[in-house]
Automatic annotation (TrEMBL):
<dbReference type="GO" id="GO:0046872">
    <property type="term" value="F:metal ion binding"/>
</dbReference>
<dbReference type="Pfam" id="PF05853">
    <property type="entry name" value="BKACE"/>
</dbReference>
<dbReference type="InterPro" id="IPR013785">
    <property type="entry name" value="Aldolase_TIM"/>
</dbReference>
<keyword id="KW-0808">Transferase</keyword>
<keyword id="KW-0479">Metal-binding</keyword>
<dbReference type="GO" id="GO:0043720">
    <property type="term" value="F:3-keto-5-aminohexanoate cleavage activity"/>
</dbReference>
<dbReference type="InterPro" id="IPR008567">
    <property type="entry name" value="BKACE"/>
</dbReference>
<keyword id="KW-0862">Zinc</keyword>
<protein>
    <submittedName>
        <fullName>3-keto-5-aminohexanoate cleavage protein</fullName>
    </submittedName>
</protein>
Amino acid sequence: MAKIIISCAITGSAHVPSMSDALPVTPEEIASQAIDAAAAGAAILHLHARMPEDGRPTGDPDVYARFLPVIKQATDAVVNITTGGAVTMSVQERLAAAVRFKPELCSLNMGSINFAFFPAAARIKSWKHAWEKDYVEGSDEFIFKNTFRDIATILETLSEAGTRFEHECYDVGHLYNLAHFLDRGLIKPGFFVQMVFGILGGIGADLDNLMFMKQTCDRLFGKDSYQWSVLAAGRHQMPFLNQAALLGGHVRVGLEDSLFIERGVLAASNAQQVEKIKRILAEMGHEPATPEEARAILGLKGGDRVEF
């Protein structure tokens, strides 16, 4: 059976340190957990940065510079730098690290959505840092903005360096946005679709929605013109990944997407989630793709052509 790419999203920007002691915050923690996730079987490492002193999301390239070279020296995994950053950042702030480091792969949200996680505030009994409570509770008015102009800017800016994209689609309309840019020639066949389920503001985590998203991709793009993967938030993570693997898709785990390893049990690390999905895939008869196999599947430029 075809190899399945395991991506691991190491820290993200929605979860805050008070939610889990395992969430990596400092450059040293991010590097360590990324390296361990790669050793466990993740071919792609999806990376955000945080301020070391309190875990606030940041787009500062100087912070990225403290962990990207460490990861590159210790593993051959594909480094995927976010262009989503955090909902509080401008497009320029979100792009800064990718522009400087020219990675093989970047995430790219294919539209604007409400992006909320405020219900989590009720489950936090004490806050580690002053910024966290307002950030989480205030997400009831967050809008992640990626207009057609924003998307075109990101595509045009990063494509010049040979960077390809993890096209994050949080709803069916985002697939049509992707089709629009394919028609314009800003996206080429062989692109990578990451279907996102269970974010408050995006498409719900119902298996019927997974089937419909996949069917829509096939109708819009043709079955052989794209690669696809699935991520699901929180408790939906593993059930959705099981279904995606059964359908022949790739999978993404990581503490950005879920802080848990099973119902009611916090994950000890990103690597623990990678190890779990790797065991599940093995039971299905699948093998995880190596970084080099992932590069071949996605048509990436190679780790020797990045600038970190």
